């Protein structure tokens, strides 16, 4: 299981990255993250929504309600220009971190 | 007999009671809960179990409310920034002489002289920065010096960027650029945030940092001054010594 602090730090870049694949809604975003991480990243489901709202306030993403079958509706999110920019910056940081660790741990058995 | 609809409606009431008031957010959370219940039902668990698991997974309403409140605070801060920008745009009286400490007034005067020294007919963020570096009192000079920034290095950088204008008749009191005005408004809110009645030179410095787009900010950046660190240093100094100069 990934530690709480790391999960918190990676939430926004994860959401932004997933949304570059196309618009999506909260429940499915959570499922994707679970799938991609082999269940190692566990969000408390509800906690995703305040993050999404904050990101929407930041103009990184936008949302719309979509009517699905039997009168139910889902709120779909999609990434905006500022979101791409934010993701670019985050991606640089995560890539750097990852390459630092790779360099340090090359050839080491843990 | 377990009534799913009733349970969901009760859950919504409880979440609302915990402080999640926005119907839109409640709708979204409910939509999530229903989605989860539905998938769980497909996997073969009973409605009652499905509901229990989904509620567990979505998290405690109070904790959710805390997080939404934090997200809302960000929104509020942005509103504040808009308000500040609007005040500048409306030409809110600046630089509110009564609210400035003697040190802050001196800084602006020194900044005015710097502008004249460059033969510039405006007082820009760069001149104010030089004023701050010339000011003997206060914490700003010391903090910047520790970061390897002094009057001379800054002046050299400014000359690289804007250059000295040829000698010509300049206004005796050049006007402030919009960026300086904005920085001064930001200085005001910095002082307020630190519960200070008067705006001191250190708040003006923080204002310049927060404004972020002026020549001062560019120069500081090119001299390797990290905005966050500089800000932290100033706040540390303020915590150590009572400002007031």
Question: Biggest β-sheet of chain A, characterized?
Answer: 3 strands, antiparallel
Query: In angstroms, what is the radius of gyration of chain A?
Result: 16 Å
Determine the strand fraction of chain A and express it as a percent band: 5-15%
Kindly report the greatest chain-chain contact and the residue count on each side: A-B, 18 and 21 residues
What does the main sheet of chain B amount to?
A: none
The CATH superfamily label of the largest domain in chain B reads Clp, N-terminal domain
- What is the residue-mean pLDDT of chain B, rounded to a whole number? 83
The SSE order of chain B reads: HHHHHHHHHHHH
Sequence of strands across the biggest β-sheet of chain A: 1-3-2
Fold topology:
The complex is a heterodimer of chains A (110) and B (245).
Chain A: H1 4-19, E1 24-25, H2 26-36, H3 48-57, E2 61-67, E3 73-79, H4 81-105
Helix pairs in contact in A: 1-4
Chain B: H1 4-17, H2 23-42, H3 47-58, H4 61-89, H5 102-117, H6 125-134, H7 140-146, H8 151-161, H9 178-193, H10 201-211, H11 215-222, H12 227-240
Summarize the structure in words.
The complex is a heterodimer of chains A (110) and B (245). Chain A is of the alpha+beta class and 110 residues long. Chain A has a single domain (4-102), classed as Arc Repressor Mutant, subunit A. Chain A contains four helices and three strands. Chain A has helices at 4-19, 26-36, 48-57, 81-105, and strands at residues 24-25, 61-67, 73-79. Chain A has a three-stranded antiparallel beta sheet. In chain A, a hairpin with a 5-residue loop joins strand 2 (61-67) and strand 3. Chain B has 245 residues and is mostly helical. Chain B has two domains: 4-79; 93-240, Orthogonal Bundle (Double Clp-N motif). Chain B is 69% helix and 0% strand. Chain B has twelve helices and no strands. In chain B, helix 1 runs parallel beside helix 3. The chains are: A alpha+beta (110), B mainly alpha (245).
């Amino acid at each position: 299981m990934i530690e709480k602090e790391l999960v918190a730090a990676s939430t926004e870049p994860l959401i932004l990255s997933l949304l570059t694949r196309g618009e999506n809604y909260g429940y499915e975003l959570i499922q994707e993250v679970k799938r991609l991480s082999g269940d190692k990243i566990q969000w408390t489901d509800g906690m995703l929504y305040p993050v999404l709202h904050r990101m929407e306030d930041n103009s990184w993403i936008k949302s719309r309600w979509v009517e699905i079958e039997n009168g139910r509706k889902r709120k779909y999110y999609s990434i905006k220009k500022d979101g791409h920019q934010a993701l670019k910056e985050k991606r640089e940081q995560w890539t750097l971190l990852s390459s630092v660790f790779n360099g340090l741990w090359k050839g080491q058995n843990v | 007999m377990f009534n799913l609809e009733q349970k969901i409606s009760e859950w919504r009431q409880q979440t609302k009671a915990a402080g999640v008031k926005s119907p839109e957010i409640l709708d979204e959370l409910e939509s999530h809960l229903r989605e989860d219940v539905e998938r769980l039902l497909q996997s073969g668990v009973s409605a009652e179990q499905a509901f229990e698991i989904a509620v567990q997974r979505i998290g405690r309403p109070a904790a959710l409310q805390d997080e939404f409140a934090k997200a809302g605070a960000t929104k509020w801060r942005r509103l504040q920034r808009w308000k500040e920008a609007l005040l500048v745009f409306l030409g809110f009286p600046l630089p509110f002489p009564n609210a400035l400490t003697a040190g802050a007034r001196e800084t602006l005067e020194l900044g005015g002289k710097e502008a004249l020294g460059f033969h510039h007919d405006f007082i820009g963020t760069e001149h104010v920065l030089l004023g701050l570096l010339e000011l003997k009192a206060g914490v700003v000079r010391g903090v910047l010096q520790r970061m390897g920034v002094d009057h001379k290095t800054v002046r050299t950088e400014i000359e690289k960027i804007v250059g000295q204008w040829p000698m010509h008749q300049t206004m005796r009191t050049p006007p402030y650029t919009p960026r300086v005005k904005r920085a001064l408004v930001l200085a005001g809110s910095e002082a307020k945030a630190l519960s200070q009645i008067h705006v001191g030179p250190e708040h003006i410095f923080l204002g310049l940092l927060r404004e972020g787009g002026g020549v001062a900010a560019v120069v500081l950046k090119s001299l390797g001054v990290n905005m966050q660190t500089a800000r932290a240093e100033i706040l540390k100094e303020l915590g150590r010594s009572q400002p007031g100069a």
